[in-house]
Amino acid sequence: MTQDKADSVSEQGRMKRPTVHDVAREAGVSLATVDRVLNQRPGVRKATAARVGDAMARLGYQRDMAAANLSKRRHYRLIFILAAGTNSFMHMLRDAVAGTATFTSMDRIEIETMLVPPFEGRALATVLDGLDPAEIDGVAIVATDSPEVRDAISRLVARGIHVVTLVSDTPTSKRAKFVGIDNVVAGRTAAGLLGRCCARPGHIAIVMGSSLLRDHVERRLGFETVMAREYPHLTCLPPIEGRDDSETVAQVLSAQLAADHRITGIYSIGAGNRGIVQALKTRESRERISVVVHELTPSARAALIDGTFDAVINQDAGHEVRSAVRILTSLVDGRPTLEAQEKISIDIFMRDNLP
């Protein structure tokens, strides 16, 4: 064998991924022992398990989870618990779950959607308490940040079900991860956009769904911080709550617009954007009001196109659902996730860059 061929064979050997046979040989144990350690089966002494773990670390051994799951015929059973009602973004999330489920079934991942009344912490807690660990591996929930929900998540985790929060977080709970945008940054971004649009002094109306939703509270915090620091000619009014319902938003915002003619801008933190369009079209004054909202729903798209809205801050519902699935299956397998892949970005859309 020539030296070049010998070097090539040596290089291929170095590039070859270590196998369970290599781990067994390195640790000085049988293949059966390595298999017990990998699958967390009983019958292995702690010292032996530690020796196997050290051997895997030295060799850089990484388990092929797809092959392992196929050999075990692993089925993942996941549930997404979303808010019922007319919230268009929640409908987009439901569609994203349904679309994702058609592909994940090939990977033995079964996904089910359950709906609960929006803003009802007790109702959500009741559903969480009713889940059976024998039938479910992981849960993704749009969380209401209430004591009932935090306690229910703790009970669920104690029963062996992995939990991630989706879109809206409850950070003091025992959930494993939050899947969503940085909502404080989203609020700050909204302030930068709206502040640049509102040149004349005036008031800013803030419409939020509910103070029980962490994402709404964080967006308001980021928004008001930037407005106070960088746009002193604009005064933020106390927020009005529209419960993410278009008719309610139209009613409460119309009353505010009729009572305060100094409103020069509107920031909609949550859903119900059709109500904002209705309130603006039915008001008496023709003075233009700048508007920044969240989520590129069909009604928000139409309002951007006709000039009613100035900007939409969006989060990718499909990315969030797929990320939640990847994180939950990784938690079940006990393997890490790629953080960069799971980061949900904040998108800004105006009439000129609509997809």
Mind explaining what this structure looks like?
- The chain is an alpha/beta fold.
- The protein folds into 3 domains: about 5-60, Orthogonal Bundle (434 Repressor (Amino-terminal Domain)); about 75-180 and about 315-345, Rossmann fold (3-Layer(aba) Sandwich), CATH 3.40.50.2300; about 185-315, Rossmann fold (3-Layer(aba) Sandwich), CATH 3.40.50.
- It has 15 helices and 12 strands.
- The protein has helices spanning about 5-15, 20-25, 30-40, 45-60, 65-70, 90-105, 120-130, 145-160, 185-195, 215-230, 245-260, 275-280, 300-305, 315-335, 340, and strands at about 75-85, 110-115, 140, 160-165, 175-180, 200-210, 235, 240, 265-270, 290-295, 310-315, 345-350.
- Strands 6, 7, 8, 9, 10, 11 and 12 form a 7-stranded mixed sheet that branches. The chain has a 5-stranded parallel sheet with strand order 2-1-3-4-5, with helices on both faces.
- α12 links the parallel β9 (about 265-270) and β10 (about 290-295).
- α6 (about 90-105) crosses α14 (about 315-335) and α7 packs parallel to α8.
- The longest helix is centred in the N-terminal third of the chain and has 17 residues, at about 90-105.
- It is elongated and about 80 Å long.
- The model is unreliable at about 1-15 (pLDDT under 50).
